[in-house]
């Protein structure tokens, strides 16, 4: 695949991208993560600061800004690994956990990709059906899923190019919608500050925004691995951080405004009703962006699925046919789940996925501490693909111990419809599990593994990247 022609179907999968085929600039990461966050689900998430945590508009916006800033910083720190190592995120996890030790995080990430693909195209179908009741949701779900599949099959460059278009279009639409609601806003007198500020509610809303960002941590290196090594960690970090934080904050702000204006009405209904005659075309345009959002999930799921199979077949050299096959499998799994599942089940399934996110918190902590504080970006990339795990072996027992501790210490703080921990209940539903997980795992892993010395990273050409099929 050339770096500048999306008519070619990408052939690369999990093997490192050689420097002579790296291309692009860090600005592409801004557009990708901005466009991926401007969607209906982000708006609904922002409205929770008002509807679930009962904050006024001002403290709600402050909490969401803080949560997005913190969460996006953790997520963006993973982006710097792509240009440095040239491999997908979950392949790089073998450097911390070993070839078999990384399987739990890989399996959880695959479930998350399938769930987010399902929810994205399901929202597309429901949005169009709500705006146009005569249009059944199923055909829209199938069309959106197929469009996402085609875009994911085309690959990395096609996704980045569509993201640039979406960023421009959705940014303009969102700005106009926000301006429209601000001009016509009629909030009750107490709505700006709420009936009573509590730190518990503020932290709860902050955590929702932070978890929203952290959920993207397994994605980011997948979309930065084609950037030249000279891109550097700073440029990759700031482009990813600013795109993710800004792209999330804007729709979340709108969600707060809509939730405060009509607290007893579904926020999407308020959105559609408030736009009047403009609601139909705007809903259609924003729904079109969901295909690109779902393509990101299908593409990432493809890489994780190949990584999972490669663990047991280390001599396999997956190429273009393998990535097409996995894209088709992921897309049709999402289509079938979205079209054939009752809304109540989908709600429960998404809550299950949120529990899976808690399993990824200690993975993120271990990955970042290992990369920045212990190995300082120096990895033996060739070992990622060796049958015995190379210098990293099959298992890193110390990393797995820290990982298990990180999961256990979060349990009392977890908040979901499926399970809410005792400490979370005492805090009135504020979810501090992510903070506790990070606070415990980071120093624990550093203490346990600070004496690990990895081999120096090999030149990318030593690994070999042209895969078969």
CATH homologous superfamily designation: Hydantoin permease
Give, in order, the helices and strands.
HHHHHHHHHHHHHHHHHH
Would you tell me the overall average pLDDT? Answer: 85
Please give the CATH architecture. Orthogonal Bundle
- The number of helical runs is 18
First-residue to last-residue Cα separation: 15 Å
Core attributes:
469 residues, Hydantoin permease, globular, mainly alpha
How would you explain this protein's 3D organization?
The protein is an all-alpha fold and 469 residues long. It has one domain: Orthogonal Bundle (Hydantoin permease), CATH 1.10.4160. It contains 18 helices and no strands. The protein has helices at residues 27-37, 40-51, 57-79, 81-85, 89-92, 94-97, 103-131, 137-154, 156-183, 199-214, 232-261, 267-275, 279-312, 320-340, 343-374, 397-410, 422-426, 433-449. Helix 1 (27-37) packs across helix 9, helix 1 (27-37) runs parallel beside helix 11 and helix 7 (103-131) packs across helix 15 (343-374). The longest helix is centred in the middle third of the chain and has 34 residues, at 279-312. It is globular and about 65 Å long. The model is unreliable at 1-7 and 454-469 (pLDDT under 50).
Which SSEs are present, and which pair or pack?
Elements: H1 27-37, H2 40-51, H3 57-79, H4 81-85, H5 89-92, H6 94-97, H7 103-131, H8 137-154, H9 156-183, H10 199-214, H11 232-261, H12 267-275, H13 279-312, H14 320-340, H15 343-374, H16 397-410, H17 422-426, H18 433-449
């Amino acid at each position: 695949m050339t770096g500048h022609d999306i008519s070619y179907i990408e052939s690369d999968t999990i093997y490192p991208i050689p420097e002579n085929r790296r291309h692009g600039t860090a600005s592409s990461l801004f557009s990708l993560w901005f466009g991926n966050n401007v969607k209906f689900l982000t708006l609904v998430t922002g409205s929770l600061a008002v509807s679930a945590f009962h904050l006024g508009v001002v403290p709600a916006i402050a909490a969401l800004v803080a949560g997005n800033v913190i969460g996006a910083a953790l997520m963006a720190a993973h982006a710097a690994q792509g240009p440095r190592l040239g491999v997908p995120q979950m392949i790089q996890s073998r450097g911390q956990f070993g070839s078999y030790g990384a399987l739990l995080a890989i399996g959880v990430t695959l479930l998350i990709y399938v769930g987010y693909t399902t929810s994205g195209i399901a929202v597309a179908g429901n949005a169009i059906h709500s705006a146009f009741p005569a249009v059944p949701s199923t055909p829209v779900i199938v069309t959106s899923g197929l469009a996402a599949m085609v875009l994911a099959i085309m690959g990395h460059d096609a996704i980045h190019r569509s993201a640039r278009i979406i960023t421009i279009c959705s940014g303009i639409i969102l700005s106009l919608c926000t301006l429209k609601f601000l001009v016509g806003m009629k909030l009750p007198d107490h709505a700006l500050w709420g009936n009573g500020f509590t730190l518990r509610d503020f932290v709860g809303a902050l955590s929702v925004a932070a978890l929203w960002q952290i959920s993207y941590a397994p994605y980011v290196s997948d979309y930065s691995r084609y950037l030249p090594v000279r891109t550097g960690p700073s440029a990759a970090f700031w482009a990813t951080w600013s795109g993710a934080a800004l792209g999330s904050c804007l729709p979340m702000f709108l969600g707060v405004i809509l939730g405060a204006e009509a607290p007893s009405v579904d926020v999407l209904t308020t959105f559609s009703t408030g736009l009047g005659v403009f609601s139909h075309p705007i809903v259609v345009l924003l729904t079109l962006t969901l295909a690109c959002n779902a393509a990101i999930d299908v593409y990432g799921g493809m890489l994780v699925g190949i990584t999972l199979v490669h663990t047991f077949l280390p001599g396999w050299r997956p190429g273009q046919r393998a990535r097409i096959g996995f894209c088709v499998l992921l897309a049709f799994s999402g289509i079938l789940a979205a079209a054939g599942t009752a809304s109540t089940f989908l709600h429960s399934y998404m809550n299950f996925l949120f529990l899976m996110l808690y399993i990824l918190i200690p993975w993120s902590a271990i990955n970042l501490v290992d990369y920045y504080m212990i190995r300082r970006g120096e990895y033996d990339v060739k070992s990622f693909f060796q049958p015995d795990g190379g210098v990293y072996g099959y298992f890193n027992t110390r990393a797995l111990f820290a990982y298990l501790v990180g999961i256990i210490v979060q349990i009392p703080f977890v908040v979901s419809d499926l399970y809410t921990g005792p400490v979370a209940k005492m805090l009135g539903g504020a979810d501090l599990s992510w903070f506790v997980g990070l606070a415990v795992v980071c120093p624990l892993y550093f203490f346990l593994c600070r004496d690990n010395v990895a081999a120096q990273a090999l030149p990318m050409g030593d690994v070999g990247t042209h895969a078969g099929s």
